[in-house]
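step 4 of 6: structure.
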Amino acid sequence: MKKSSDFEFDDLQGLLRFGYGKLTDTCFMLLNIANVDLAKQWLNTVPINSAITKDPPPDTAVQIAFSVEGLRALGLKESVVDGFSDEFIVGMAGDESRSRRLGDVGRNAPQRWKWGGNAAQVPHVLLLLYARKGNIEAWRKTVEGEHFSRAFLLLEELPTLYIGDIESFGFHDGISQPTIDWMQRQSTDIHERDSFSNLLAVGEMVLGYPNEYGQYTARPLIDPRKDKLATLLPNAKNDPAWKDFGRNGTYLVLRHLGQDVAGFWQFLDKVSDHMPQKREQLAAAMLGRERNGTPLIAERIPGIPREDHWNDFTFDQDPNGNHCPLGAHIRRSNPRTGDLPPGVNGFISRLIKILGFGQRSDEDLVASSRFHRLLRRGRSYGPALAPEDAIKPDAPASERGLQFICLVANISRQFEFVQNAWTMNSKFNGVQEERDPLLGNREPLMSGEGTDHFNCPGQSGPMQKTSHLPQFVTTHGGGYFFMPGLRALKYISALPANGSDSHHDEDQEPDTKSYSQFSDSAATH
Amino acid sequence: MTPQSSFMIAATVRAGQLTNLRALLTSMNKIPGHADPDNVLISFNKFDRLHFARFVIIEAKTAHEIKEFGVTPRPWRPALAFLCDIDGDIHTFLVELMELAESGLKKIFSHCEGITEEDQNLLEWMKAHNINANANYVNWIGRTVRQIHEEAELHRSLSTYLQKIVDDVGRENVHALRQKLLSHVEMEKYKGRLMLSPPEPTPTEWKVRNLLHKIGMPLVILLLSPLLLVIAPFFALRLRMLERSEPELFIRPGRNHLTELTVQEDWDVTNQYSVFGDVKPGLFRLLTFKFILLLTDYFARHIYNRGFLARIKTIHFARWVLMDNNHRVFFASNYDGSHESYMDDFINKVGWGLNLIFSNAVGYPTTRWIIKEGAHREHAFKYTQRRHQIPTEVWYKAYPGLTAVDLARNSRIRQSMEIRQSNDAEIREWLSLI
């Protein structure tokens, strides 16, 4: 039996294991590298928190992640960079087709972003600082040290503000999170995962470990015989002759999301005929939970710890969305589906389900959730605004929103899939003319069909339709970052200058592999 | 009921004409890869029997991969393929095509060998170049384009009217709601704003052939079953031998290639997919492939013809075509959702089925007992299917904005409307769909 002490928590950045919820004050900085040598010196000394549990827990934390341009600026060879996924290399705003897929069109279009929208100028580094209340400035000074302002150029200090356990609209936040199976106890075999489990394979969040397919996600591997520096790195578990630059690292997806809090509550108030109870009901239906976090589904499932009592449910008993609407935010972002539709209780019924029989035409439309989970680590910004105040015409105006952060091992299968197939999809689970009631843009389809509805199915028959939803959330920025393991960070800070490589001759065999080769040379440099 | 048919006219592109042809095809598009439905060469929207159409230039970009099997790649010259999924029979549709788009078609096909713009026998040429699919899938056999449009209009009309009356009549008052909706439809029909054509009679010839096929196939297999039983152990042995020894190709698709493909995707709720590759060398793989495709076609025709292909409810039309004297395979489909979700659906829901079919093609990830692993080797699978995918130069869908699930719902709404519903629960369910 594996013990938790067996896991290499000392090589993981802490954010993969902790949300640092007690460290309420934060400073998120987007940096460019101004002086490569000074930046590396600083990287070599910065006290990045590992994922080891400390008693007492730390009073401060610092975490770091790099964009592809950042890694290039620090001299990571292009052959290593090529080992990363295409999404990471091209970037969140680097391809119009991706923007279309992510719903970053219209008001969300990268051309209108505050930062990160110009693919040619993505920020190099994302630095995340955490401290107890009132201590962030002192901690920032400590972390920055002497030469920081010469090593880095501060592009943007992303606003964050602690307003309690709620996000800006006023809902209790951060409830639905996967539990990472650090000990790798749960089977990923398709025959044993018929129903939803909140326990998730390490490889879904951390590179270098088996994922939910029982496979290793592609990542840069380096041949230590060709690159002496690579001896700093851990071995690749699935290919021990190679060193694993990705192991214990993860991709960090950052989205700067503006929330129109006053607009949201005022719209709800208007369509609820100014009745507070009706307003709250509609808000809860849109989210799928009441504001205090209570889910609209009362059913409980085994396997989720009792203390996580807001999280131990599935939607299996509510196929029509009579309790929690099919299009509700939490039902879209985590549909809690298993590998098979509910109702399997033996070989025959299993076979029937696999062959697709015995299902209504509007059943079994959603993919299995375990391949599309996100570990969320976002922080909100802007002063809290209670719904009662938000509905007043003189509601205090202020920028409010969320610095959405999620950690995933596969950006396209996890973040982009959830964003595209679930959140923004106006056909998700057979819904009609609606995107995510909170997050969605309201761009009509190419056919002219609208997407600005929200429907609450009901026992009585006709759906309760809410029409002409304004857009409540707007993307103001975003980027894909790589959050390396601590040994990989050492490797980065020890890289020779300018990406020149004294260790090997370019004509020889490649000294890196992305665990595969490209099919056209256009992709290699 | 009007059964659907499909055709694929394919011909080799004349030497030196590829660039011109591509430019000509691009001129038919409004946005990348999507036909302007009213373009001057072929006004697709004039054809009320046409569900989907596409022009693909089939190039063997992955032909070298077969070298891994110790086989010299066969030469392949780029070919132009014109695919249509239609209601009714092919002949009358081709005649209609000639009537409405002869000059455009000539302009396009004159880039191919064997036909010039001056030729008078385009119809014969097209028929001679039609390749029958080895397996064909239709989401709902008998559902016509006309029906789809009429039912979508019905749903829209019902939905708007229900919104208008629901608060006055009362949500709980389901009988009254139904009554009002039914009269509304009658009124709209009378005013000519709604039309609900009854289904055409099913062609007798088709009925007979379909029945013979339905009974004939199992009969033949039953007759051959002693032989199949004798072969089975040898088949299993040979299969495992090949699965263990065949090379697995793990090659990441290039980013330029991906960009070419993704620029055409996610404009509408439905996307197209065209893929082309080599059949694995050897008689064993070819026969297995043909047998599996035969079964696929049978199941698609007689069992999976009501809105689902095993657990997949997002495919409108799909076809598998063996080409180049059975050395290569072409697959085309029209699916709802993004490419990533299509592939994840495939892996998680019908990985076994994909394995059965495509494990006989070069580049497919290694399988075990022909149904296990394969597609579940996620990266290898996603790489190989993207690598073998080819851009679709021109693509037309007759009902943008509608998914296969939408179509099924619209049909249900109409059917439930046309039958007598007396029970409250039935009426509630009907109202909940609108």
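step 5 of 6: annotate
 - Residues 262-381+393-402+429-476 of chain A form one domain.
 - The radius of gyration of chain A is 24 Å.
step 6 of 6: archive
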